[in-house]
Fold each of these.
Amino acid sequence: MSVVTNTTTIGAIEAPSRRNTELALLAFAVVIPVFAYLNVGLAIDGKVPAGMAGYGLGLALLAGVAHLVVRKWAPYADPLLLPLATLLNGMGLVLIWRLDQSPRLIATSMSRYNSFSPDAPSQMMYSAIGIAMFVGVLLLLKDHRVLQRYTYISMAVSLVLLLLPLVPGLGTDVFGAKIWINVGGFSIQPGEFAKLVLAVFFSGYLMVKRDALALASRRFMGLYLPRGRDLGPILTIWAVSLLILVFENDLGTSLLFFGMFVIMLYVATERTSWIVMGLLMAVAGAVIVGSTASHVQSRVAAWLDPFECLETATDPNMLNACDQMTQVLMSFGSGGILGTGLGQGNSDLIGFAANSDFIFATVGEELGLAGVMVFLLLYGLIVERGVRTALAARDPFGKLLAMGLSGAFALQIFVVAGGVMGLIPLTGMTMPFLAYGGSSVIANWALIGILIRISDTARRPAPAPAPSPDAEMTQVVRP
Amino acid sequence: MNKPLRRVAIFCGLLILALLLRDNWVQFVRADELNAHPKNTRVRIERYANERGNIIVDGKPITGSVDSKDEYFKYKRTYTDGPMWAPVTGYASQAYDANQIEKIEDGILTGNDDRLFFDRTLAMFTGEKKKGGDVVTTLSGAAQKAAFEGLGSKTGAVVAIEPKTGKILAMASTPSYDPTSFAGYSRKDEKAWVALEKDKSKPKLNRAIREIYPPGSVFKVVTAAAALENGKVKDINAATDTPEGWKIPLSRVPMKNHASGCADASLKRALDISCNSVFAKLGDDVGRDKMVEMAEKFGFNAEQFTPVRSSASVYDKTADRGGNALSSIGQFNTATTPLQMAMVTAAIANDGKLMKPYMIDELRAPNVDLLKKTEPEEMSRPVSQENAQLLQQMMESVVTNGTGGNADLNMDGVKVGGKTGTAQHGAKNAKRPYAWFISYAKTAEGSPVAVAVVVEDSAGTDREDISGGGLAAPIAKAVMKAVLKTRG
């Protein structure tokens, strides 16, 4: 007779893998966009769109591959993340395809560039690459803790990525924001990838330094003030954020990175004083830049009262910003509660960037208040699953990384949706998965991949303990 | 690390909540304001997104829609005989909004009206294209044509009403414009619009209802009505006590007569030859307040809605005695729209009953279902039936014995009554006078038509020749003839 004594705290109870739940949800995530696609076709042409089968099969294929990979290589992963991302990506494709068919946007493009090419096919391709990236992350990254080894390499890489657009000849200035680089005919937004790499760096760095940052401090007026030398990193990040803002004209990225850092710093050290300092520094930075950079001023003017500013502004840039903002607001307003229906709105009146920065306005106009709230809740759910993953993760590095990524995701949603709805000044970033743009889709699929990997590790039942030598049967010699 | 994690999670939740609240604010609370914003082109896009319904005269549309092959506004409005019908239809322009019937019945014409909700829903299921409903007018193509061609190159306006019902049969205004010329939003449309805006002869002004003119002698019928109603004159053939050279009250100036033989002239005779002194004295005898009361019963001092809004005609409520005496012969501050004078004539022709004038007969859904029919509506009874018939006698005498001979139709069984007017205006009457003529035709079954014609400052006519009888009466005659002919 043998007695097995369990010496680990976590039992080897078989946790449900929830893969079938994921599969069922994925079916919805494919069927809903397919119906949306049908809806657009019927609304615009009055007949079933020709590409519907192709679109449906393509989306189902991508989702299926992703699901199989998760089933095989991350069997305990969170079941919601993949369906949510698939649904958003699929709806994004439908919205972009819908805007592709706007005669107004086609005419504008024809008169400006003498050519028009639809964006939906390339977005489909980017989505495929994105899912390939997702698969790649799951296949190559067997354990997220491996990333700890690359802490300082990540720092270097993220700095390079962030500053690439400033390299003469490589960076391109598109409508005032220097956030693109041109490589072999493709334009890439390195900032989207920098988001991921930077999160890795922050996690690795903070995991090592958290005790020093948290404990070696003096108490002053109820706040724990860090030592001067520990202030180094936050000052550096702040400076880099400001540099991005000033030289790349990219308010959103700058805000996103700084916010992500402050959140992770707070989580790592559990010191509220970091939040206070972060906020103070953000305000200081905003004031400095706001009073000097003209493009920030025009965004602020367009935010305060776009209709008023449209009447009074004289600067063409400001006029442009205000006009765009009024168009976006009217687009939201005309949607009302239930919206005009897919394909039946006039959100293309926004013109430039209607399918990227302002795609959320199309949601607002054609799906209405109800649709926008659904989308916001879908994004909210992704964030929630991310935070849950962070809570469940057993290692501090995984916790920090999951929190950093989902925090950045939440901030991005807030900054973009808040910008187009006039809650905060417009920053010019893209709605993850929804908006047109290769870098964004690919990077966000990688983000979901990393979250899935961490959640798989977090939810994976502990391996059955190796038989302990102590537990071996002791021979009892009977007298 | 879990405590700060939970706090950050709450923070992220608050971010999403802020977005949800903001969305409700923009899409629910501010939705109406944003939708109605003048910068919002969606209203215009919607107006031209589908084939617009038509405005119909005599069962035939006088408007149309063409596919403009444009990516903003799909359909463009066209007008048949645009200049002739412009005072009725108004315009619907992609760049310059719309007015008159095109604007008032926009909901029906675009098909967005709530009354068409059922049609829209049905069309959604049957897969039919959305279409606008039609507006059927009360106008008569023949009468309108006679009016418009009668005015010709002269500046002026004509309004014809069916006295029994108040149906407007003709509404012409010259110089006119072609609403088709600026129905789009291209450079060409802009040019046409700007040219019209700058035109000194104001072609876009609807003189039939939006311009007020001094009525001059045609107002004397109102004064005559007031004198009869208030018992100041009992017998229209009896001599009145009016000396030649009757002095205007509060002044030393005698009232000037253009006609001779006005001393103590009877009311009938005074109307025949248009004696100023007799009517000024009668107005003075009736008194200002009673005069105001009578004028207002005919519709003065109020805007009329046909349903297109007209300007309010004026009879001065605060004039002193002298002013009132002058007002009584259509001078001083008295001013009237051609519509108003047509209403006065119609009320007299209809034996004293004034019907509310209207020009939209029916509203029809795209499937020709009747949505609304305008029922004739009595507006007031300015004069009793007996007095109305006395007035008719006098007005018919004007045509047979007096200044209105040019309006005589010479048709069997048709009696014509009328009154001429030559309204002086401008400082010291220096400007060319306005020629007025009001008239009605009457058969045994009652009166089918009452017309008011005003011809402004007509170039090419010698000043001495400008008179209501000479310039305006033939136009009124043509319109009446057209109406009588279409009645068979």
Amino acid sequence: MKRSRFPIAVTALVLAFLYLPILILVANSFNPARFSSRWEGFSLVWYARLFHSPEIWEAVRNTLIIAVSATAVSVTLGTMAAYALHRWAASRLQRLHYTLIYQPLVVPEILMGISLLMAFVAVGLPLGLFTIFLAHVTFCVSYVAMTVLGRLQDFDFSVIEAARDLGASPWQAARRVLLPLLMPGIVSGALLAFTLSVDDFVVTFFVAGPGSTTLPLRIYSMIKYGAPPMINALSTLLLAVTLTAVLLSQRLASRRS
Amino acid sequence: MKRRTEWLVSLPTVAWLGLFVVIPTLLVFVIAFRPSNPYGGIGRGWTLETVRALAAPGTLVIAWRTLWMSLLTTAISLVLALPAGYTIARAPARWRNRLLLLVIVPFWTSFLVRVFAWRSLLHPDGPVKRALAALGLVGPQATLLYHPAAVVLVMVYTFLPFTILPIYAAAEKFDFRLVEAARDLGARPFQAFRKVFLPGIRRGVVTAVLVVFVPALGSYIIPDLVGGPSSEMIGNKIAQRVFSDRNLPLASAVSAVLVLAVLAPLAAILALQRKGKKSDIVIGEAP
């Protein structure tokens, strides 16, 4: 049976399309030209400039504070949510719970940004790192819950009952049996939450206040008001970090299964 | 006893999402009927003025543009994602994981960075413009940026991985012997694709359409960075009302319209999901 080559050709084009801008960006980060229209040789000048920019370091600090705290809280809440969703799947409470968790995944980000801004303004909460943290937990929780739920699909609850029959307290059973079994799901949920928090622009833009500039907010103002070559260098570094994280999580996932 | 454990485990997320998703969304509808105050906050009392401001012809033009640009993005993404999802599902196991990883990596890369990359590509001095000019396809004065086509192109670029994944997930479960049977019975490749494969992965296609169409309706960064005044979308209007005019009630009113526009396709997703056994949505999940 002869198979058409057309879909393979389209796939190759799609992959080229997906990677072309990224490759050009990485190449330009090593180009000393002010406007990267012509290649002027290999240089690390933009990287050097980047490392000497205090605004960048301040933004990196804010980004990490928010990402670490939002990941910790959303992984805890999201794992509990996934457990409940799977354990009592048929109950009415869990159907409502699922609908709630589903919302942030599909509703456009700008709507989450604007509605949270309205809520913070309405109760008079000053905008800053804390409001960004609240917003990030809100969307990260859903992604963590869905990721852990995915791993739970083929989870056998009888191991918990076995542990209980053998005399473990509910807490011991959760900590010694359930948690280790769920770990791969929790780790990939945490990586996802961390990446989403580090990368978020739209929601953060709406709920950020003075003195709470994160990396994406800094990149945005660099794009809008000049300094493009430095963004190439910064983006290339970010790419390197995310690629390492993806490969690490792949390695982890394949070892566990 | 069991009920109590269920409540205890579910309460944290139910309370959190109620507090930070449900109440804020309802608030958007309430604030749309409040007057603005001169300090950029929310005034006292109630008014219908913002609702009247919505009926302005400018708003309708933007609502219509948002709708057709989102539909166009969805259609183009689907046309590209169908062959890609099909190819990945039919690839040998070793290749399948590599291809999936290649599709997922852009998802893990900073969204802002990818939009920025297109901005430099489409720039008047950028490689795409120079290549097109060298081929004589565009004049030396043409601008590729700030055009609705640029916005659709970059939207397709960012949403494409989201379209490929659900189609792949559905195609992977599809029994390809059905396509071979159709071919043996004399169907041409395209006929077999349209009459056998496409109906077989229907649920994946519906999911793909919705995960592109709904976020596209709320696009903001892409039209902001690669579009111009002739390609503004509803998202840009919301941001302008918040950051330029400091008119929160008007921003609320525009957002309320967007919430309603998004609700219809969302209800469709949930209805379909409830009918099926397992979610077809794979979000950033490593293969």
